[in-house]
Amino acid sequence: MRNTAKITTAVLAAGALTLGLTACGADQDAASDTSGPLVVAASPVPHAEILNFVKDNLAEKAGLDLEVKEFTDYVTPNTATEDGSVGANYFQTQPYLDDFNKKNGTHIVSVVDVHLEPLGLYSHKVKKADELKSGATIAIPNDTVNEGRALQLLAANGLLTLKDGVGTSATPADITENPKKLTFKELEAAQTPRSLDDVDAAVVNGNYAIEADLKPAEDALVLEKAKDNPNSNLLAVKEGQEDDPRVKKLAKLLTSPEVKKFIEDTYAGSVLPSF
């Protein structure tokens, strides 16, 4: 077993309470102390797996003391980075980060893009997207950016039409044409793969698909395209911590040839290097 601490969604409410952003002095001191290990919050798959590859194979030679903490939600890693409980995080895309900062008054910034996890449509009931029946129920993530990505994916594959210009802020209210009369079940992103037995299909984030033993490159009915995709997953820190020498070392290692090969060999097209 790797020495990582798993944080479940049970801490979600507690994490949300930190949005008051009144960090204690101890947290602030920990964030500014660059002599200790760099603690990075990450989703279990593939982020923590990639970080643990770095920790086990590259960090010591680079003089980096790296500690990985696993989180299973999309809120706590940012609040923990903001209050100094962790020194960095690796789990999110730039559109999600921008939306989170805007809504919560946080000050998290990107350091480097690492990989893309294509969003996909999955089903236990049909083999092709055009086999979805009229009135089919589709589970989609309920956070602003991933919901928009999900609807854009469906639109790109002819299942619906959206208002011009809505981008990743799209919601079901922005649907202008819905020929199959699809209905939508909005769920926390981690719940979408678990809903597959209860809905006709679900749009699932790449990391949660892999955790659920789905193979995006093989199992998705439709999958996001990698070319010109703005949704790369990135290493992020609180503003002002970008020059932390530990962060710079990690950014360099995460975009190394060794990590690129690890991603390509391990995920076989389900996770794509962004560098």
From TrEMBL:
It is found in: Membrane. Keywords: Lipoprotein, Membrane, Palmitate, Signal. This is Lipoprotein. It is a lipid-anchor. InterPro entries: Lipoprotein_NlpA. A lipid is attached at C24 (S-diacylglycerol cysteine). It comes from Streptomyces sp. R02. It comes from the Bacteria. GO terms for cellular component: membrane. The keyword Signal applies. Residues 1-25 form the signal peptide. It holds the Pfam family Lipoprotein_9. Belongs to the nlpA lipoprotein family.
